[in-house]
C-alpha cells in the first residue's frame, strides 16, 4: 500500500500534472488499493508469512493488545483518497481543454466539448460564446499544424487561453 501511495505522490508532484490527469491518477490508485484490499499485495502476503512464523528479520514478533484491522485500515485510506478527488463536474468541464482527450476525427474535434466549455465559462463568469470560439480557434490551429502547415501556436492562440498553463493547448 505504501508503495502505491508513494507512486501516486510522485506522479501528483510532476511539473506537467493538471487536474484532469491528477483525477485519473487518484482513481487508478484507488482501484489498485481496492484490489489489494481484497486479495493483498505482495508485501502484505510477505508480512502475513512473517507473522505466522513469528519472526521478522531475526527478531521475535510479540502480539500487542492494540491490533489494527487491515481491512478497516485499507478502506480508511481509500475513503480518504476519494475525499481528495476533484469534483467530477469540474474535471469534466476541463477535459475538452486537454488535447489528450480530443477525438482524432477533425469533424468530431470541431464540436468536441462545447457544452463543457460553456459550463466552465459560466462558472468562471466569462463569456461562454467567446470561450467556445477561442477553443474552436485552438482546435483549428492544431488541425492545421497536424496537416503540415506552419503554425506558430503561441502567437496564434487567442488571448483567452494565454494565461492557461503552458502546454495545455500545445499542438505538438
UniProtKB/TrEMBL annotation:
Protein name as catalogued: Uncharacterized protein
Amino acid at each position: 500500500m505504501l508503495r502505491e501511495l508513494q507512486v501516486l505522490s510522485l506522479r501528483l508532484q510532476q511539473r506537467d500534472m493538471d487536474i484532469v490527469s491528477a483525477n485519473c491518477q487518484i482513481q487508478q490508485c484507488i482501484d489498485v488499493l481496492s484490489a489489494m484490499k481484497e486479495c493483498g499485495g505482495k508485501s502484505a502476503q510477505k508480512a502475513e508469512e512473517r507473522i505466522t512464523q513469528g519472526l521478522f528479520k531475526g527478531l521475535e514478533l510479540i502480539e500487542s493488545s492494540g491490533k489494527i484491522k487491515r481491512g478497516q485500515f485499507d478502506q480508511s485510506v481509500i475513503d480518504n483518497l476519494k475525499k481528495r478527488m476533484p469534483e467530477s463536474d469540474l474535471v469534466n468541464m476541463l477535459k475538452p481543454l486537454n488535447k489528450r482527450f480530443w477525438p482524432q476525427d477533425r469533424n468530431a474535434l470541431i464540436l468536441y466539448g462545447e457544452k463543457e466549455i460553456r459550463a466552465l465559462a459560466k462558472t468562471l463568469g466569462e463569456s461562454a460564446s467567446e470561450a467556445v470560439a477561442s477553443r474552436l480557434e485552438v482546435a483549428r490551429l492544431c488541425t492545421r499544424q497536424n496537416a503540415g502547415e506552419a503554425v506558430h501556436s503561441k502567437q496564434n492562440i487567442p488571448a483567452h487561453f494565454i494565461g492557461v498553463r503552458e502546454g495545455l493547448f500545445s499542438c505538438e
